[in-house]
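User: Teach me something about this protein's shape.
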Amino acid sequence: MSDHLRERRVLSLAIVMSSAAVAQAFGRFTWGVVLPDARDDVLDGSNTLAGLFGSINVGAYLLGTILVAWLSSRLTLVWLVRVGLMLSTTGLALASFAPAPWVLGVSLFIMGLGGAVIWVPAPGIAVRYFPASRRGLASGIVGAGIGVGIVFAGRLGGWVDDGSDGAWQRVYRIELALAIIVLFLVFTVLKSRGERPAVAGGFGGFGALRTVAAWKPMTLAYTAYGFSYILIISFLVARLEDDSGYSEERAAFVFSVVGLAIIVGGLTVVPMSDRIGRRLTLVIAFASWAVASVLILTGVTVLVFVAAGLIGLMFSGIPGTIVAHIMSHTDESTYGPAFSAMTLAFGLAQAISPQIGGAIADWRGSFTAVFVLAAVVAGLGAVASAKISAR
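Assistant: First, the predicted structure itself:
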C-alpha cells in the first residue's frame, strides 16, 4: 500500500470517528453534562422535565432508526453519514442559541435524528479498513471516537461553567464550531468506494435481521442496554451533584473519566470478542455494568471512579460487540437494514428510559432507585446474552 493511500485511509477513518463523536457525544450525550444547569436555568429545576427533554432526544433517535432503515435502500453509507451530520450540526446550532425551552426541545429532537442516522453506517464504513477477522476492532474504533467526544464534552462543561445563566449554551457553541469543521471534511474527503445502496432486507430491515444468528436474544440484549445506559449517562452528573454532594467541576470530571474509558473499551473490549467470543464478552460486560451502577450509589470517590471506568469500558464494549456480531452474519446489502431493524427496539428502550428515570427521581427525591433500576435491567441483558451463540 502506498504512503498516500495509507494516509488517506487513516484520514477517512479519523473523519468517521469524528462524525460519530459529533453525532453521539455532542448531539446526544452532552445533554447529560449540561442537564443540571439547563434544568435550573430553563426547566424550573424539574427532573421530570429534564427527563422529558432527554426522552425527546432519544425518542427522535427511535424515529431516526426508522428513517435510516428506509434511507439505507436509497443512499450509500457515506451519504447516510453526511445526512446524519447535517442534522446533528443543525441541532447543535439551535441548542447554542435557544431563546426558549421549546427551541431547546426541537434542537434535541434534531440531534437525536442525526445520532441514529450516523450510528448505523459508521461501523460499516470503518470495517472497510480491516480484515474480516478484525471486525470487532473496526467497530470498536468508532466507539473510541465517541469516547473522545465525551471526554471533551465533560471537560468542556467544567471549564466554561462560571455559574452564570446560559453558561451551558457555551458548551454547545464550541461543539458547533467543531461540528462545522467535521461536516466540511465529510463532504470533501470522505468518499464512497463504488458501493450501492442496500436493496435487500424486507420491511424495516426485519427480513435481513432474521438472517442474523441468535437475532432474538441479541435484540433483547441490545434493548436492555438501551434502557440501562441512557439512565446512567443522562443522570450521572445530576446524581453526583444532587445526592452525593459533588461540585459541578468534580462531577464533570467523573463524566470525563467515563469518556476516557469509552476510548479504551472500544479498542480492547470489542476486539477481545474476536478472540473469546461475543457471548462471553457480552455476559461479562453486562454484569460489569450492573456492578458499576451500584457502585455509583456509594458516593465514595474511589468507588465512583472505578464505576466510571467500568461504565465507559462497557458503554463502547457492549454495542460494539453487538455490531461486530451483526457484521459477521451480514454483507454490504443486508448490514444496514439488519442493524437498523435491531436498533428500533434499542431506540424504543431509550425513548422511554429518561422519562421514567426523571419521574422516579422526583417521586423518590433522589436518583438511588434510578440507578438500581439500571443495574436490574443490565442483569437482564446478561441473561439474554447467555443465550446467543458463542461466536
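Now, about its shape. The chain has 14 helices and no strands. The CA atoms of residues 42 and 100 lie 8 Å apart. If you'd like, I can walk through any region in more detail.
User: That's plenty for now, thanks!
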